[in-house]
Design goal:
Distance between the termini of chain A: 30 Å
Largest sheet of chain A: 9 strands, antiparallel
Number of strands of chain A: 9
Largest interface: A-B, 21 and 21 residues
CATH architecture of chain A: Beta Barrel
Order of helices and strands of chain A: EEEEEHEEEHEH
Strand order of the largest sheet of chain A: 5-4-3-2-6-7-8-1-9
Number of helices of chain A: 3
Structural class of chain A: mainly beta
Number of domains of chain A: 1
Helix content of chain A: 10-25%
Oligomer: homodimer
Strand content of chain A: over 45%
Chain lengths: 154, 154
């Protein structure tokens, strides 16, 4: 299933945010080359994972494997300068419309984005963003995870 | 335990080689950067593994994880141009002295090396190589796995 997502910058935090379930995400890139990205990722409460993804130029490969927390902690130092740490708040805005509001930390402190996942194209097209959302950055490479991790806030 | 190893080129194959146990090794690098190498590796009969190793310049990290064969096969195409495929013949030459004779294939076809593992420094120093061994290449970067995989036969 292809994910249908749109993304916005957030101007002001929604007043209900404290009541959205949240968890902290640590994501770091071990390697970014012309052929692959290799990243580790941990949501608090979940198992850590290592993912190998082919570059968009190659035919698509994506492999994910579970990591023990010990392995994650040992690999994390190798991601220095290529990290995203954020608290993700999640809420179902309507049936099949899921909000993910990310508050970035550390080097990206102050950046707040809203990703909205849709069940289908039609839902994505008729969606009107909430008033606290700012500029739409769907498809903007400057706000892609890898770019943010390596180059910081646009 | 630190491995104590020496390495030679092989001039002629030992006459007994057919009787040494052997297995085929496929090893490919997904990524080689200033900070890490990420490789996949499979000995026939054994489980495939993915290994993340820090570059020698950083404090040493090495994490290995098991891969299903399916995952190995999907990742292998991403190692193109950075591979070592060889048949390894193994034999205990004397107690604590293990011979690993590697016959390389594909891009490295024709290269044959002998690695000898020792139980301790003293055994390593008093060892006399067999008559079929040629030049010693212990510590020679041109014969390191990563160099062979990327740059081919020296």
């Amino acid at each position: 299933m292809a994910e249908i997502e749109r993304k916005w910058l957030v101007r002001t935090l929604p007043s209900t945010l404290e009541r959205w379930p949240s968890s902290r995400l640590e994501q770091g890139y071990l390697a970014i080359t012309d052929d692959v990205e290799v990243r580790v990722r941990r949501f608090d409460g979940d198992a850590a994972r290592l993912t190998v993804k082919s570059s968009p130029a190659l035919s698509r490969v994506e492999e994910e494997m579970a990591l023990e927390d010990g392995a994650f902690d040992r690999l994390w130092p190798l991601t220095e300068g290529r990290r995203l740490v954020k608290v993700r708040h999640t809420r179902e805005d309507a049936p099949g419309v899921v909000f993910e509001l990310d508050l970035y930390e550390d080097a990206l402190d102050g950046l707040v984005t809203l990703e909205v996942e849709f069940a289908d194209e039609a839902a994505s097209e008729r969606f009107a963003p909430p008033p606290w959302a700012g500029r739409e950055v769907t498809g903007d490479k400057a706000y892609a995870n890898q770019t943010l991790a390596v180059h910081g806030r646009p």
